[in-house]
Amino acid sequence: MNRVTATSVEWVALPATVRAAVEEQAGPVLSAEPHGDGRNSPVRLALETAQGRVFIKGTGPDDLERRRWKLDLGAKLSPYVTRIAPALLWRVEAEGWDIAGYEYLPGRPWASQHPGSRDVPKLVAVLRELEEIPAPDVLDVTAVECWGRYADDLSVLEGDAFVHRDPNPANFVVSDDRAWMVDWGWAARGPAWLTAAQLVLSLMEHEWEAGAAEEAVSGLPAWQAADPRDLAAYGEINARMWDDYVRGNDDPVDNYRAGVAHAWARHRAELAQPSP
Predict the structure, then answer these.
(1) Any idea what the Cα angle at residue 25 is, between residues 20 and 28, rounded to 5°?
(2) What is the Cα–Cα distance from 169 to 173, expressed in whole angstroms?
(3) Residue 92 contacts by C-beta under 8 Å, 6 or more apart in sequence?
């Protein structure tokens, strides 16, 4: 399953005042190339500057408010996740453009999540590190707000852990020895097992069987401590969300992901059944 990708705005297409504001922070830009993937940041460029490499992401004057909000949340959370994510170096605003400059990470801006991939243990290791980071006070988005409308019991979604809601391949950078997690605009406060559950779903979207995907995250303390009944309830919540999302939507990728959501919900429902 391949997610929809989006092309970054080119460096030369940015207004001159925006480029000048960036260069005031980063130094003269010698070259620029698209870097990474994602539909929430129309600007995603690796800049080679006189001071070294830097990654920029940002939104423009005509972007949706949710894109601006995600960029802002990611910037606010950056100081709290520097052990597992690139550091925010600076941020500039000009002519309605909001550009954040981040440390450039040496690695692939896309993780392989297919069965047998050597990237997957590195991704799980990042989730283990995330479990050790307290959710900061500036994180006021909750899992209840994100999924609550589909829940019969909101307590399933309650928690005070630092959660990344979308650990898909585009939200990791992978090097030879480790991985980093990016795009913290997808962060929320919720149950500690939720990021692992989302990774299980992402692995299943990349051809893993449910049991094998769960085995990949089985060493995570939060997963080990999760109540199977909560996981079953979340499986149903997530399936309902996707049913709502694809209603009247004939996009094959979205419908494939909805099918995966239902497959995991069935798997979790079976595991939650009491032994005879």
Answers:
(1) 60
(2) 8
(3) 18, 21, 22, 24, 25, 98, 99, 101
CA geometry: angle 41, 44, 47, nearest 5 deg? 155
More confident residue, 248 or 40: 248
CB 272 within 8 A of CB 231: yes
- Domain region containing 32: 11-103
Task: Pick the last residue of a domain from 46, 72, 103.
Answer: 103
State the Cα–Cα distance between residues 176 and 95, nearest whole angstrom.
Answer: 40
Owner of token pair 């050790």: 132
Q: 161 to each of 139, 140, 213, 236, how far by Cα in Å?
A: 10, 12, 22, 21
135 and 247 both lie in a single domain? yes
Q: What is the pLDDT of residues 87-140, one digit of tens each?
A: 999 999 999 999 999 999 989 999 999 999 999 999 999 999 999 999 999 999
Q: What is the pLDDT of residue 39?
A: 66
Query: Does the reported pTM lie above 0.70?
Result: yes
Note whether 68 and 197 are same-domain residues.
no
Neighbours of 240 (CB within 10 A): 18
pLDDT one-digit tens code per residue, 27-54? 999 999 998 776 678 899 999 999 999 9
Number of domains comprising the chain:
2
DSSP state of 60: -
Contact status, residue 13 vs residue 262, Cβ threshold 8 Å: no
132-149 tens-digit pLDDT:
999 999 999 999 999 999
Q: Domain containing 258 — which CATH number?
A: 3.90.1200.10
